[in-house]
Amino acid sequence: MAKKSSVLKNERRKATVAKYATRRQELKAIIKNPATSVEDRSAAQLKLAQQPRDANPVRVTVRCVVTGRPRGNLRKFGLSRMQFRDKALAGELTGVVKASW
User: Fold this and answer.
1) d(CA 18, CA 49)
2) Are strands 73-74 and 79-80 parallel, antiparallel or unpaired?
3) What is the pLDDT of residue 85?
4) For 15-24, which contacts have Cβ atoms below 8 Å and span 24 or more sequence positions?
5) Read out DSSP for the chain?
6) How far apart are CA 61 and CA 23, in angstroms?
7) What is the model's pTM?
């Protein structure tokens, strides 16, 4: 089980990303547009740099829904590798069948 503080910090990051998502998208569009003047582009880059670090979606960690483990996750199921194996063998995951040949 992961520390509760780490899981809560990740939830705060998700909220911050959602809060700043539209503004980040607007600034990134200004920066990427080739028709934008140099002054406007540099102003947009400065505003983007002044946003909180946690506003960047890269900083959000994919965690297991059950345990909060940050490593070895299967995104499709939202579970860590160990929880996935336990639930698959118990038959709790629809459509997952153990391979045999």
Assistant:
1) 17
2) antiparallel
3) 95
4) 16/52, 16/54, 16/55, 17/54, 17/55, 17/56, 17/57, 17/59, 17/60, 19/55, 20/51, 20/52, 20/55, 21/57, 23/51, 24/48, 24/51, 24/55, 24/56
5) ---HHHHHHHHHHHHHHHHHHHHHHHHHHHHH-TTS-HHHHHHHHHHHHHS-GGGSGGGPPP--TTT---SSEETTTTEEHHHHHHHHHTT-STT------
6) 21
7) 0.82
pLDDT in tens, 54-85: 999 999 999 999 999 999 999 999 999 999 99
pLDDT digits (tens, 9 = 90+) for 13-47: 999 999 999 999 999 999 999 999 999 999 999 99
